[in-house]
Design goal:
This protein is α+β, with helices and mostly antiparallel strands. Helices cover 44% and strands 18% of the residues. An 8-stranded antiparallel sheet has the order 4-15-14-13-8-17-6-5, with no helix packed on it. It has a 6-stranded antiparallel sheet with strand order 7-16-9-10-11-12, with no helix packed on it. Strands 2-1-3 form a 3-stranded antiparallel sheet. α4 packs antiparallel against α5. The radius of gyration is 51 Å and the shape is elongated.
Length: 468
């Protein structure tokens, strides 16, 4: 390796990465790289945290560095050595040029030596010049790359600023669209509400007219009966014997009245169908499973704890405090002390069933009526062709045209709201008056007892995961 190459390597080792000059008061960071103290501090001042090494970009937890006095002394020696070498090269170059101007004999050994020295000096200067040129070219390449990167970054920065404006504008437009759509939906629902209320008012007027007409008719029948009854009572109380003609006349008057069959007037109201009800309720879908520890010993639960039926044979199960011992009932494993929850139960063609919500503290022993407020349930009952639904707390019933095959149960704990829905025709069955819940609530299920070989089907909790 030539002297110029060695000098160049030495200079690179003793040069600060930041200022590209010999070290001045060098310091070494924790990652092992060295810089001039002033250069390092200035670099950290110009950049935001976190602090990092200017050479390897490693993040430094704290601005910690150690003075490197030995490296500083070496840099000073290297700087002086380079200066002296360059001075010697300049002198040798001048001396060589002087020799070249004179005529030297090829046989003169001193001339040959002088010529050799001149050439060696010229080569060293040339090599140093080429090295400096190479480094400048490298710096220029880096500078060009940095300028290109700066230009690209500025383009992206400008684009991002434009996107900020577009983002705000898009969000504003989207808010306006959403608000308008909800206004439209609210208006649509308001119109449907008015139509539904008007229909109910119309049906109320028709039902009231039927009832008044029936009332007038029945009142007339009562008056006719009272008149005939009074006449017959007078004949019966009289001391004078009653002739056959009078008896015959009384029978003729009473016969039409006896043939009359007073009947109650049927009234009907439209189903309370609410547009979008089920889609809205399914947003509060809750995965419900059965709690085996609460199931009556005669009940059979499916492996996935989603279905319950009456087995007919008492199973050997521990009589723990949580288990129902007389009622064919099982509770859901989930308990609720807050939030909104909705689930659906397939009741199928069962002739008797019960689903609902109860307090977690509901009595499990005996088969006594539950106190008001402990149980909120819906009971389906079919006797012959007559199908009715009953609700507890207090017990009340209503006749329905067709059996309910799938029941939706909704709980809003904070508002104290519990309601049952006919999933098939998406109508409201019954909504309990608002209550104030003070303890945990749990789902409750009863497939009820078989009825002469019927009502053996299960109650099944539906999966709502596929409903989005």
């Amino acid at each position: 390796m030539s002297t110029s190459d060695l000098m160049e390597n030495l200079r690179e080792e003793l040069t600060c990465f930041i200022c590209l000059d010999y070290f001045t008061s060098p310091v070494t960071t924790e990652c092992g790289h060295s810089f001039c103290l002033v250069c390092l501090l200035r670099s950290w001042e110009e950049h935001n945290t976190p602090l990092s090494c200017p050479e390897c970009w490693r993040t430094l937890e704290v601005p910690h560095f150690q003075p490197n006095e030995r490296l500083g002394r070496l840099a000073g020696i290297g700087k002086q050595l380079r200066s002296q070498v360059l001075q010697n090269v300049d002198k040798q170059g001048a001396y060589g040029r002087m020799l070249a101007a004179t005529k030297v004999s090829p046989d003169d050994e001193q001339g040959v030596d002088a010529f050799s020295i001149q050439c060696h000096g010229i080569n060293r200067v040339h090599l140093l010049s080429e090295a400096e040129k190479h480094h400048k070219e490298k710096l220029q390449e880096i500078l060009n790359l940095l300028r290109k990167k700066k230009k690209e970054t500025q383009v992206i920065l400008s684009h991002e600023k434009e996107r900020v404006i577009l983002c705000k504008e898009e969000t504003k437009n989207c808010k306006q669209v959403v608000a308008f759509e909800y206004i439209k939906m609210n208006q649509f629902l308001k119109e449907e509400e008015q139509l539904h209320l008007q229909l109910l008012e119309k049906e109320e007027r028709e039902n009231l007219k039927k009832l008044r007409d029936s009332e007038i008719k029945l009142t007339q029948q009562v008056r006719g009966l009272n008149k005939v009854i009074a006449q017959m009572e007078a004949l019966c109380r009289g001391s004078v014997s009653v002739s056959p003609e009078e008896v015959k006349e009384a029978l003729n008057r009473s016969e039409p009245l006896l043939l009359q069959c007073p009947e109650t007037t049927p009234t009907e109201l439209s189903l309370c169908r609410i547009t979008g009800m089920r889609k809205m309720l399914k947003k509060f879908s809750t995965d419900i499973t059965l709690d085996p520890a609460t199931a009556n010993a005669y009940l059979v639960l499916s492996e996935d704890l989603k279905s319950v039926s009456y087995g007919g044979v008492r199973q050997k199960l521990p009589d723990n405090p949580e288990r129902f011992d007389q009622s064919a009932t099982v509770l859901g494993a989930q308990s609720f002390t807050c939030g909104r929850h909705y689930w659906e139960v397939e009741v199928g063609n069962k002739t008797e069933w019960e689903v609902g919500i109860c307090k977690d503290s509901v009595s499990r022993k005996g088969n006594h009526p539950k106190p008001p407020g402990d149980l909120f349930s819906l009971i389906g009952l079919k006797i012959g062709d007559d199908y009715s639904l009953w609700v507890s707390s207090p017990l009340k019933g209503q006749h329905v045209r067709e059996p309910v095959q799938k029941v939706g149960v909704f709980l809003d704990y904070e508002s104290g709201h519990i309601a049952f829905y006919n999933v098939t025709d998406e109508s409201l069955i019954y909504s309990f008056p608002p209550d104030s819940f003070q303890e945990a609530l749990r789902p409750i299920f009863s497939p009820c007892l078989p009825n002469e070989g019927t009502n053996t089907g299960p109650l099944t909790i539906c999966s709502l995961n596929s409903y989005v």
